UniProtKB/TrEMBL annotation:
GO MF annotation list: DNA-binding transcription factor activity; transcription cis-regulatory region binding
Gene3D superfamilies, A to Z: 3.40.190.290, Winged helix-like DNA-binding domain superfamily/Winged helix DNA-binding domain
Protein name: HTH-type transcriptional regulator YhaJ
Pfam families linked: HTH_1, LysR_substrate
Amino acid sequence: MLDALTLGQIRTFVAIAEAGSFRAGAARLLRAQSAVSHAIATLEAQLGLTLFDRSGHRPTLTPEGCVLLEDARAILLKVDFMRARARGFGEGLELELPLVVDTLFPLPLAAAALRELSQELPAVRVRLSVAPLGAPLAALQERACKLAITVGGDFRDPRIELETLMSLRFVAVVAASHPLGQRAGEREAVRSAELAEHLQIVLEDPSPLSEGRDFGVLSPRTWRVSGQDTKLAFILGGVGWGRLPLWAVERDLAEGRLVRVPATALGEQGETTVLAYLAHRIDDPLGPAARALRENLLRHAGARGR
């Protein structure tokens, strides 16, 4: 009987489990509730077990249903990946290529890859957005872009494949005129308690993916800003301290406008290394332009990392 299982039944099972009710699952699938109920009843009969406990106001997964839900999701991911790959074989050149880049990623490197794309495929328009934290991944989840570059591994989604591009060095910095800047000049480790006495400039996530979470925040006093340029301007202006990618502050450090903060809680001498990833959905095929840009980015990032 297991050979009689259909993808429609499996999709119905997952939709109801995720939506929380047969009615909501039916609405998600654009099917009648009676058809959805029949599909689940048939699936349970074929499996020889009960997937949902229907005794309450809302159906809840049985212990067996919870286990099989993971299997069902895995099956659908594989099927969607196969379909996407098949569609990609015959897909024509994109008219437009949407790309979202993490604000922490070096834009000159992205520009070099995009310049080559423009030379190779001049008819393709590129729509580029730069956004922090969870926004690149959220854009992929919402199908607002084909490719995204994200920094750090804090956000994951089984529908999205991540390919390592390069490692990025992050440093804690402050204006030379700031009290912490003068303290940093003594070349002694700065403790967390001392950092907590000063305002920290922090990037704000426009997506809901980091709701209730902070990354590298050590001070109870924070100002939230929407972009890296604003964060750098505030730090240069002596408003507070913060962490920034080394590529963005090398010149300011070399010319003495900024100094490093040797904060022991943020790595040796206040420096940490974070990976940058190229991301795309496994169920959405990359067209010729997206594949070309992917190759360009991997090549340029690899050359930069050597």
